[in-house]
Structure to design on (286 residues):
């Protein structure tokens, strides 16, 4: 852990704000700064105090300091007795202690009070997943996406859950939705190509070939897509038996091209590694 002994309360508050904005968790540092510097000065920061306390609570839960986190949640519940946000903190504390049924009960109360509370619905999916109830988590997340269709992270999670239970056609549907939301993200095209390749069959292999090609068009350095295209092309060569077939010729050209690109990438990697080793040896010699 870094040391922040010389920081004033205002400087610590600025630092914690920076971590929030950058999505940096740093839970042990956050707890230490709260205990040693900010705890006695939190009332000086106006309404920002409540955002700060949320950061502290989740940091304490990360560090398994459940008693301290519950103490802060209790203080907030006295100040805001009907706050659904404070209830989410209670559910998070119960989830951290693996009291999953109690956490679900709290989340259900929140959702019944506000059906559009997206964070509570997503935490419910996370709790079901933590319990190993994958099919229940899938159903919950599918219902969630009926109301929040533009949630990219939810589509990604649903895709992963379908892959876990080997429902590849539904996973492919989720991957297609992801491409609609992020058409220029090469990883989305690669994911759909991987799924289609796994599903097998000529039709799926042709689709996998198309999406691997689009991946490489967006990012020519995607080595996984190159390897995937090579495997798909070789598979299609076995499917198209006729040597004069135009599709077989295309598959052959793609296979050769992908193989040459992979070989070139390997040479580049070895050259870089050799240069690094040479520079290290020169440094050691000095």
């Amino acid at each position: 852990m870094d040391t922040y002994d010389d920081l004033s309360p205002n400087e610590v508050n600025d630092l914690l704000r920076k971590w929030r904005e950058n999505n940096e968790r740093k839970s042990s540092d956050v707890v230490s700064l709260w205990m040693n510097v900010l705890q006695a000065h939190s009332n000086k920061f106006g309404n920002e105090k409540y955002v700060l306390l949320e950061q502290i609570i989740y940091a304490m839960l990360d560090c398994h300091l459940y008693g301290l986190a519950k103490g802060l949640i209790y203080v907030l519940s006295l100040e805001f007795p009907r706050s659904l946000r404070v209830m989410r903190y209670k559910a998070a504390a119960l989830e951290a202690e693996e009291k999953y049924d109690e956490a679900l009960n709290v989340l259900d109360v929140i959702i019944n009070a506000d059906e559009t509370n997206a964070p509570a619905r997503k935490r419910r999916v996370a709790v079901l997943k933590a319990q190993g109830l994958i099919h229940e988590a899938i159903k919950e997340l599918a219902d969630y996406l009926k109301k929040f269709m533009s949630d990219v992270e939810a589509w990604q999670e649903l895709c992963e859950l379908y892959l876990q239970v080997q429902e590849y056609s539904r996973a492919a549907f989720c991957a297609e939705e992801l491409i609609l939301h992020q058409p220029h993200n090469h990883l989305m095209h690669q994911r759909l190509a991987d799924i289609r390749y796994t599903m097998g069959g000529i039709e799926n292999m042709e689709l996998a070939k198309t999406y691997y090609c689009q991946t490489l068009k967006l990012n020519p350095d995607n080595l996984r897509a190159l390897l995937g295209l090579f495997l798909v092309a070789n598979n299609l060569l076995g499917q198209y038996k006729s040597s004069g077939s135009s599709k077989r010729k295309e598959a052959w050209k793609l296979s050769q091209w992908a193989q040459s690109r992979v070989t070139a990438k390997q040479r580049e990697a070895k050259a870089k590694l050799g240069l690094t080793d040479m520079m290290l040896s020169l440094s050691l010699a000095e």
